[in-house]
Write a structure and sequence with these properties.
A two-stranded antiparallel ribbon has the order 1-2. The longest helix has 21 residues. The protein contains 17 helices and two strands.
């Protein structure tokens, strides 16, 4: 293990032992300990080393390792415990990441059909989540309104990459391969101007997720006609590998040594299925408007409990 990895592990061990000591609980098999560790990971106290790992991936064209990294970071980002205020649209970008690495089951846990239409969240997430669910689950009731909302969104002054993402889904619905290629290209170029970290901009995972979505939905002969983006943030090599491996192995990129091996278990556990609730429905706070009281949002605490119990 090189010096940088050693320092990363040492830092994690210090934070991990502090969590265990503060909880004054027994083993990592105890649910309360697992909840404390998971919550700490959700809040970024026990963080990944994504930037460094991504640098490693770019040095080698080992596409399985690329997939491992996307999978691990996506699983880490989806750990419950940190409240966000949105409903099940909140993790839409992670749903695209799940599609990008072939973890379709996780995408369905993020956006389960039984929760229905999403309304409370960032407009791009709401529009895209509803149209994705309508197409994925072949929901003919949701589809017309989702298409209408996407058309309206494309005509707004929202960021280019967001409008291009919505336009891609509309083109996917029409099976317009030429338009899909153009919109994917615009997703990549617009993504570079968005407010994301330099590390995230190195690999445009939303574009990869949308491309993988098309492979899942379209007949092979139509999908193969989509032109891949020619952009530094889109890896055609990885995309071709995923085309050839539609059900890739879902492995961890970095397996943590003792005493941190519980982190591996947490990352590999089934993602917490989205649960929504109305946290202010019975509030007597005069500053809570009737609109706020009616809003649904992810119930992170219920999701945390269910996640640990199902681990």
């Amino acid at each position: 293990m090189d010096l940088e990895k050693s320092q990363y592990i040492e830092r994690l061990i210090v934070n991990y032992e502090e969590i265990i000591t503060r909880k004054k609980l027994g083993t990592v098999q105890d649910n309360e300990v697992l909840k404390a560790i998971t919550r700490s990971m959700s809040f970024g106290i026990l963080e990944t080393n994504y930037d460094v790992w991504l640098d490693e991936c770019f040095l080698h064209e080992d596409w399985q390792k690329w997939n491992d990294l996307i999978f691990q970071q996506m699983r880490h980002d989806l750990l419950p415990g940190c409240e966000g205020g949105y409903d099940h649209c909140r993790n839409f970008l992670n749903a695209l990441e799940a599609l990008a690495c072939g973890d379709n089951e996780t995408m369905e846990r993020i956006l389960p059909s039984e929760l229905g239409v999403t309304k409370n969240g960032y407009p791009f997430y709401v529009v895209m989540s509803n149209l994705l669910m309508a197409m994925w689950y072949r929901d003919e009731i949701l589809l017309p309104k989702a298409l209408e909302a996407a058309v309206k969104f494309v005509g707004t002054k929202k960021p280019q990459w967001e409008r291009s993402g919505a336009a891609f889904l509309l083109s996917l619905h029409k099976e317009d391969v030429k338009a899909m290629g153009m919109h994917l290209q615009n997703v990549c170029s617009g993504y570079m101007r968005a407010d994301f970290s330099k590390a995230l901009k190195r690999l445009c995972l939303p574009a990869h997720g949308l491309y993988s979505l098309a492979q899942n939905i379209l007949p092979t002969e139509i999908f193969q006609q989509i032109k891949m983006p020619e952009h530094k943030s889109f890896s055609q090599g990885f995309a071709k590998w995923r085309n050839e491996n539609p059900q890739p192995r879902l492995n961890l990129y970095f397996e943590y040594p003792a005493p941190l091996e519980v982190i591996n278990k947490i990352h590999m556990a089934p993602v917490a299925k989205s649960i929504i609730s109305q946290p202010y429905i019975h509030s007597d706070n005069p500053y809570h408007s009737p609109q706020l009281k009616k809003k649904w949002s992810l119930d992170e605490q219920a999701m945390l409990i269910a996640f640990v119990e199902n681990m």
